[in-house]
Each structure stands twice: as structure tokens, then as C-alpha cells.
Amino acid sequence: MSVTPTKRAAHSTRRQRRALRSRPAAAAEQGGLKRPRRSIKPHPGSPSAKPDVRLKLDRHVLSQEEVQAWSAQSQTRLFKEPAPFGFTRADFAPAWGRVGKTDEARARWLLEFAARDLRALSAADWLDLRWEVFGFLYPPSGGPPPFSSGDIPGEPSCSVNHVRRMYRWLQSGLDRVKRGAGHSWAVPLAVTPRLTMLGGRLLTWPDPDTSFTESFKWKAYEALDREAQRFRVCTNANCRRVFLALNRQASCTKRCSQTVRTRKYRAGHRTKVNELRRAYYAKRRNGTAMPISGPPKTAAPVGEVIRDGQ
User: Fold this and answer.
1) What's the rounded Cα separation, in Å, for the pair 118 and 157?
2) Quick one: DSSP state of residue 85?
């Protein structure tokens, strides 16, 4: 029985591994093979152990007094023990200014959010966008957002992954709507809204146990439903962007409107457009324009021009 070079190399490797198991670690480092190191996980209670990010922090259930403090006090943290945490209305002010407070402004922000390119956002842009999404979920006319002791000061509770999931869900739904008749967008809502009278007016906001994604679905449906009469899809076939129309607006921008008008004119005057194109190309090639229609025009005699000018 002959031994091939491949089998000889395999036997040599096995012999080296058996020798490594019998020698100390220092001798193994000097050889050609290295013993794989085992990763030792620290005990969860040790100081070097990192907190498990998969653990869900308990959200604080707001009482009636805390809800009233949210509506009345704009500079005071709601909770003091063991350290001040939670959001104030002042934290939301910049986001509310960008999102808007009216139904029209909130619907327009929602459609602009669906048209954004998340790949081009910087770290600062992502923080602003997270605040805007959080401000959209909890408008100034509603109740306070959920609080937890794990919130980072200066950052909203919804993470980047939350915003990405909301973005993908909104884009996929609007794509179904843009396909036209025969296509619909089903919006299953798993939200438990809360209502309470405070200061003589009714406050509504999602239940604290509701996920941010489900709350976003509810708020998005609510915003589009209130502006459904003005919801349009751009008539430009190369655009097809959704927008809120003003009066009888059919295109999202003036540029798209001009593109649609130009295509309609060219489709209705095909012969004239082709003649104008031939004349334009002839002028560029020869320096003289080809007559569009009829016999060529000749210049009038000089005498006639002078007599006409007298």
C-alpha cells in the first residue's frame, strides 16, 4: 500500500497535535502550531461583566400627577430618585418645531421621512431624526412618552433600529398605494390608546407597554387619514412621489409639472415636433436651417426694400 503526499502531510499534522497536547504551552508557542485560546466569559455579577442589552428595562407607569406635571412643567424632570431622569417638554421643543404641530405639517413630515436616504445620514443627522420620530410619536397635544431608568440623557428612547423598521414599513406601504387601483395597504394596529381629561381637554397617547413601531403605525395611519383628501401621487412617470396637494396640484414640483406638460404636447403634435427637431439638427450640422414647411423663402430686391421703407 503506497502512501501519497497528502496522507503523509495529514499524518504529520496529527503527530504535531498529539505532541502539543503533551508539551506545556510555552513549547507550543515555539512550534509551528498554536493552541486555540478559549474565551472565558466573566460572571454576570463581576465588575468586568457588560450589561446584557437584550434585557428589556421596565418602563415607568405614569400616574395622574406625573401626567399633569408633564403638561404643566417644562423645565423639571418628573422623577428624582435615585437621580433625575425622564424627558421634559423643553427636550422635545426642537423636534416639534421640525415635525410641526398641525395635521398638515405632521403628514408632510411623514412623507418627507419616507423619501429620505438613510444611507447618507451622519451621526448628528441620525440623532436629529430619532428626536423627530419621537416627537412625531408624542406630539405636544398628547400625553408624555414612556420613561425608564436606562434612558440616556439627551437622547430619545427610540433607537436607530426602531427608526429603520419604521422607515421600511412606511416605504413598503406607500409603494403599494402608488401602484394604483386594485392595490391596498393593510395597516394592522396593535395599539392600546389611553385617554384622560386634563386641564379641561382630552389627552391621547399610546399605552407605555406598546412598542415604538406599533405606536408609529398608529400615528402614521392617523396622519394620513386626516389628510386623505389631499394625498396625491406625482403624475410624472419617472417620479411617482407621494405628496400633499395644494388646490388642484397634480405634480409634486414645478419641474415634474413642466415635464408632464412637455410630454403631452409632444404626444399631441408629433409631426410638428419632428420637423422642428430636423430643422434644429440641420442648423447645427450645416449652419443653415431646413425649412419646416412650404416653399423656400427668397429675399426681396433691394429696391423694393427701399421703397417699402420710404
Assistant:
1) 19
2) B
Which residue's C-alpha cell is 419617472?
Answer: 238
Coil, strand or helix: which one is 272?
A: helix
Using the CB atoms, write b or e for 114-152: b if 16+ within 10 Å.
Answer: beeeeeeeeeeeeeebbbbbbbbbbbeebbbbbbeeebe
* Separation of alpha carbons 121 and 124, rounded Å: 8
Type of residue found at 21: R
Write down the pTM of the prediction. 0.63
DSSP H or E run through 105: helix 103-115
| Tens-digit pLDDT profile for residues 58-79 | 455 556 566 666 655 544 444 4
C-alpha distance from residue 191 to each of 206, 216, 264 (Å): 7, 10, 47
Nearest Cα neighbor of 132 from 151, 150, 106, 103 is: 106
- Number of Cβ within a 10 Å radius of residue 210: 21
Rounded CA-CA distance 167/110 in Å is 10
The DSSP output letter for 111 is H
Cell numbers at 153, concatenated: 440623557
Contact indicator for 72, 64 with CB cutoff of 8 Å: no
Greater confidence (127 vs 284) lies with 127
Distances (CA, A) of 148 to 84, 86, 137: 11, 7, 17
For range 262-285, the mean pLDDT: 82
Provide the CB-side half-sphere exposure for 1 (13 A, CA). 2
Q: How many other CB atoms are found less than 10 A from the CB of residue 166?
A: 23
Q: In whole angstroms, give the CA distance from residue 105 to residue 99.
A: 7
What is the 8-class DSSP label of residue 60? Answer: B
| Rounded (10°) angle between helices 123-137 and 160-178 | 70
Nearest to 110 by CA among 58, 48, 177: 177
Give the confidence band of 92 by pLDDT, cuts at 50, 70, 90.
confident
